[in-house]
From TrEMBL:
Entry keyword set: Membrane, Transmembrane, Transmembrane helix
The name this protein goes by in its record: ABC-2 type transport system permease protein
Annotated TM spans: 41-59, 148-170, 182-206, 213-234, 262-282
Coiled coil: none
GO molecular function, one term: ABC-type transporter activity
Length: 290
């Protein structure tokens, strides 16, 4: 009697390459990106904390001269007061808007996001690490999603430092801000930063050049800021204000009025479009390798 023939199972080895799930791929790439940028984030966090403390330290003198300050600013042309956010400068919300949220905070958050977006894939190509990264069993879409998540988390980390500085630093100088409005202003300005970061990521995916990605995003951010700021002073610029992302983020004065749903949706929608474009461009390009 012959022995029964056993089915032959496919051979496996302990060195067989196992592809991680998509979620784990995104987490790994995100963690690596954050680990590479923590020094930079620490510096930006320290800068925003110092900036907040300095501006808060000046507020008591502004509050003491509130009446004379209002009379002085009333002599300015209305367009000039609108351009520089001086209409309610003597109030707590107006002061923080004019000194921090109208320019300095957007500059910091846009810089954090654009730096991360430009380095996402273009930085990998310029440093010669793209061939190693994309030879791993990780989908290009997962790489981009992980890099984008690290960009958002970096902006959120700076936001936390900003909010803690203002919430903890306001009571000693008798500056009263609505916490909900402060959160709304921070969210809207953060979306503004992330939107320009997504633009840098898309340009980096298109060109593979970090300088081009940074230049395009910062250049368009500067143009959008000038259109929004100079609009009240130049009639021909006013029709273009509605197309400026700065207008979507700040025109409703969120520190005084809270969330602007339309502005938030516009910024979020444009960010998603840019990330989708970056994903498509990254899939279609032959990446530069060493």
């Amino acid at each position: 009697m012959s022995a029964a023939v056993q089915p032959v199972m496919p051979a496996t080895t302990e060195h067989e390459l196992v592809t991680p799930r998509a979620g784990r791929q995104v987490l790994v790439v995100c963690g690596r990106a954050l680990a590479e940028r923590w020094h930079s984030l620490l510096g930006w966090g320290a800068a925003i904390a110092l900036l907040s403390v300095l501006q808060l330290s000046v507020y008591p003198s502004v509050a003491r001269s509130q009446k004379s300050m209002q009379d002085f600013l009333a002599q300015y042309p209305e367009g000039l007061r609108q351009a520089f956010g001086l209409e309610d400068y003597a109030t707590a919300a107006g002061y923080v808007h004019a000194e921090l949220y109208s320019l300095m905070v957007p500059i910091v958050l846009i810089s954090v996001a654009v730096g991360a977006g430009a380095a996402a894939t273009a930085g990998e190509e310029e440093h010669g690490t793209a061939d190693l990264l994309f030879s791993l069993p990780v989908a290009r879409g997962a790489v981009l999603a992980g890099k984008a998540a690290a960009m958002v988390l970096g902006v959120l980390a700076v936001d936390v430092v900003l909010l803690l500085s203002l919430v903890l630093g306001s009571p000693p100088v008798d500056l009263h801000l609505d916490t909900g409005h402060l959160l709304a202003a921070t969210v809207q300005v953060s979306l503004l930063g992330v939107m320009f970061g997504a633009l840098a990521l898309a340009v980096g995916a298109l060109t593979g050049r970090r300088g081009a990605a940074t230049g395009a995003a910062i250049g368009l951010a500067l143009l959008a800021f000038l259109v929004e700021t100079l609009g009240p002073l130049a009639d021909w610029l006013q029709p273009w204000q509605r197309w400026s992302p700065f207008h979507w983020a700040l025109s409703n004065r969120p520190l005084g009025h809270g969330f602007d749903t339309g502005g938030v949706l516009a910024l979020a929608a444009l960010t998603l479009v840019l990330l989708a474009a970056a994903t498509l461009l990254l899939h279609r390009r032959d990446l530069r390798t060493t």
